[in-house]
Amino acid sequence: MDGVERGTTERVFALLGLLQQRRSWTGPELAGRLGVTTRTVRRDVERLRALGYRVHAGQGVGGGYRLGPGQDLPPLLLDDEEAIATVVSLLAGAGGAAAGDAALRALTKLDQVLPVRLRHEVRALSGSVESFGAGRTPVDPEVLMTLARACRDEVEAGFGYPSGSEVRRRRVEPYRLVASDRRWYLFAYDLDRDGWRTFRVDRMTEVSARTWRFRPRAAPDAAAYVQEGVASRVYPHRARFLVYAPAGTVRAQIPASAAVVREREGGRCEVVSGAGSLDSVLMHVLLLGHAFTVLDPPELRARCRVLAERLRSAGAAPVPDLERS
């Protein structure tokens, strides 16, 4: 880019900044601020339109200009204070708000272009942001950013992770960060165990990204893999049920981290869940209030009959007179 092109680009961005500051400007006002002629202002307005900005030109001697909403979101121009405020807000959102996954995607885009001079202020301000109430397990936003960068740049990552009674170093090819209603997870290929794994971000320690790049492997759907693992694979007992209610109705009753709900024909759905015992899984589905059939495992059907007889007996037995005993 030569000096003329650079000067034009800088002037167009300066024009955009002025249009974002105030609702309406006259042509002479913009020309005076930019130190150019009104003809140059008109040419620069056309350049902004070509970039996707809808700049409306008013009639009259002054030829007023104002920035209007577009059909697609064009690039935004932020000054230093606005950029810092935006990043700090996104850091807080990525750490635990309901829109955390969207906040993290936006944050990784800003991270690519954020000037180095602003990073210290962002870190200092993000440390003063707190939240309260229900939500995800808190995680360090900088850990999320390190992992998000590693996913984006396709570089290996390393971290300490609990394994039994000790913490072991894990070396992975990070693929996706996945947010549930309760926690953040990293879906990655574990290089030491040679397979896809799910890691809770809040359990990681000493997270770092390496410079060693990798070629992405064919991967399963990250969100579906993580959800099924969190809802069932991590538990010693797993069960499948055919529930006679629409999937949308059942999903509204069960947290996504507690079960996988799949649409089935005829207004039914399949529910896959896990727990410490089969009785616990069974009771969760029973309390949904819908008719259901046990699909797997076979022994759970026999357990249903035992518990049904126990409940029938409890309901039919006479109430003891405790005051006489």
UniProtKB/TrEMBL annotation:
GO MF terms held by the record: DNA binding; DNA-binding transcription factor activity
ATP-binding is among the record's keywords: no
Keywords: DNA-binding, Transcription, Transcription regulation
This protein's record includes keyword Transferase: no
PROSITE patterns: HTH_DEOR_1 (PS00894), HTH_DEOR_2 (PS51000), WYL (PS52050)
PANTHER family linked to this entry: PROTEIN PAFB, PTHR34580
The protein's name in its UniProt record: DeoR family transcriptional regulator
Species for this entry: Actinoallomurus iriomotensis
Classification of source organism: Bacteria, Bacillati, Actinomycetota, Actinomycetes, Streptosporangiales
